[in-house]
Amino acid sequence: MKNRPIYYDTETTGLDSSKDRIIEIAAYDIYLNKTFSSLINPEMEIPKSSSDICNITNEMVKDSPTFLEVGKNFIDFCRDEPILIAHNNDAFDVHFLRNEFKRVNLNMPAWKFIDTLKWARKYRPDLPRHSLQYLREMYGIEANNAHRALDDVLILKNLFSQMVDDLDYPTILSLLEKKEKKVRMPFGKHQGKPLSDVPKNYFLWLSENGAFDKPENKNLKEELVKLGII
């Protein structure tokens, strides 16, 4: 089924996709109600610092399949042109996937991706943080075994379904890909700066001094409200 959503997550030996490896990958197909989860032998040592975060040790992965086998199985699980969804996908997970597929000489399908971190930052600018665990708490989703791939996948699925309500996934994808023109401060000492770069206390000062009550600043006020700044 084309464009069906598949939530996924990876755990890795570190943060550098050019040299670190995937040690666990998990996914959940919400339309077919199927899960995918596998530890992966990275063929390198897992640093203690990484094990401390994800609770995956060298002993746990020593008899696990390598990415060559897991990658083939993951392709089969993600057949029929789905949309893959992960938190911080664009800066993290997708780079690890591409490098792993390249390393084992497998052709990675031309999947579409949604980065839920990018969505959260774009449509919830009122929040001070946008990590998966912070958003989980904000949306009242029960905690589970954080930092293990399948557990994070299931949290993300519950979280994102609340964040997007009844929007379909192709629409979500098109909204994320749409480049919006940055609105800039039209006056004052921060004139010309994007609104997101202007200190919030400056807008508070303007509000206290009645600047947003002036008819000529109506559009500015509406934009600031939309961005969650005031």
What does the model show?
This protein has 230 residues and is α/β, with parallel strands linked by helices. The chain has two domains: 5-177, 2-Layer Sandwich (Nucleotidyltransferase, domain 5), CATH 3.30.420.10; 182-230, no CATH class. The protein is built from ten helices and five strands, in the order E-E-E-H-H-H-E-H-E-H-H-H-H-H-H. The chain has a five-stranded mixed beta sheet, with helices on both faces. The longest helix is centred in the last third of the chain and has 16 residues, at 149-164.
Q: TL;DR?
A:
The chain has helices at 48-54, 58-61, 67-77, 89-103, 116-123, 132-138, 149-164, 169-177, 200-208, 218-226; strands at residues 5-12, 22-29, 34-39, 83-86, 112-115. The protein has a five-stranded mixed β-sheet, sandwiched between helices.
Structural class: alpha/beta
Name of the level-1 CATH class of the largest domain: Alpha Beta
Q: Which sheet architecture does the biggest sheet show?
A: 5 strands, mixed
- Secondary-structure element sequence? EEEHHHEHEHHHHHH
The overall strand count is 5
Q: Span from first to last CA?
A: 42 Å
Stated plainly, the CATH topology of the largest domain is called: Nucleotidyltransferase, domain 5
- Output the CATH homologous superfamily of the largest domain: Ribonuclease H-like superfamily/Ribonuclease H
**How many domains in all?**
2
Strands of the biggest beta sheet: in what spatial order?
A: 3-2-1-4-5
| Residue fraction in strands | 5-15%
Helix content: 40-55%
How would you describe the oligomerization state of the chains in this entry? single chain
**Helix segment tally:** 10
